[in-house]
Amino acid sequence: MKTFNIYIFDLDGTLLDTLQDLASAVNYALRQYGMPEHSLDDIRRFVGNGVRLLMERAIPEGAHHPQFEDVFATFRQYYMAHSLDTTRPYDHIPELLHHLKSNGCQLAVVSNKMMAATQELIRHFFPEVDVAVGEHEESGIRKKPAPDLVYEALRQLGYPSPYSSHLSAVYIGDSEVDIQTAHNAGLPCISVLWGFRDRQFLEAHGATDFIETPLDLIIK
Fold it and tell me: What is the Rg, in whole angstroms, of the alpha carbon atoms belonging to the chain?
């Protein structure tokens, strides 16, 4: 596998298994307002485009429901207090990041998760990550699959232009959103097979390069 000097990772489904905590927060919020809850597989299908769209998919009538903002606020408050209940790194992710960092690579995370939650999780689990950028709508930076979060991460790493001749970066994620994000940012994409989408689904959405375990990124 080609080596790069910058590795940009998605978070949920790529570095961390966050599914149970997300599902618990969604169902807690729904339960407070007497709305039907969802299975873990439902939540798996709903994630990937940020927490607002997650809740639009989970709430009957979506954003048109008159209580949508209240339910969404309840979800956000609960998730911020419980985002570490069951969330854990996937096997061998800490070893992978340590190896890359020890070999002089720069590491970034870009996520459609809320900025505060993204940075809290990175501080807790992966202090070797140089830059972590999450969703922050008030900044005008668009969420994935727009390339804005990737460009912001590169800027914070010291690359003001994504077309710098010194840039050797790869994007790594688990979903169709990640494939689109990498394409829009002009970066190669490696799709992981331990996350929230399976190989058949990813291939149908344009994935061409896969790894089955995190250590494949080193030895493939």
Answer: 17
Rounded to an integer, the average pLDDT of 10-20 is 96
Q: For 66, which DSSP code?
A: T
Of residues 115, 164, 160, the one with CA closest to residue 141: 115
φ, ψ at 6 (rounded to 5°): -130, 125
| CA angle (188, 109, 90) in 5-degree steps | 95
Reading the block at residue 85, the tokens are 């209940």
Look at residue 1 in the predicted model and tell me its pLDDT: 62
SS3 16: strand
Calculate the average pLDDT of the chain. 93
Cβ contact 141:152 at 8 Å:
yes
To the query of whether residue 21 is one of the catalytic residues in this protein, the response is no
Dist CA 7 CA 23 (whole Å):
28
Going from the C-alpha of 27 to that of each of 31, 32, 42, 65, 201, the distances in angstroms are 6, 9, 11, 16, 26
**pLDDT at residue 220 tops 60:** no
Instruction: Estimate to the nearest angstrom the gap between the alpha carbon of 113 and the chain centroid.
Output: 7
Range list of β-strands (E), the chain: 6-9, 16-17, 88-89, 106-114, 131-135, 169-173, 189-192, 210-211
The one-letter code for the residue type at 26 is: V
Give CA–CA dist 161/152, Å, rounded: 10
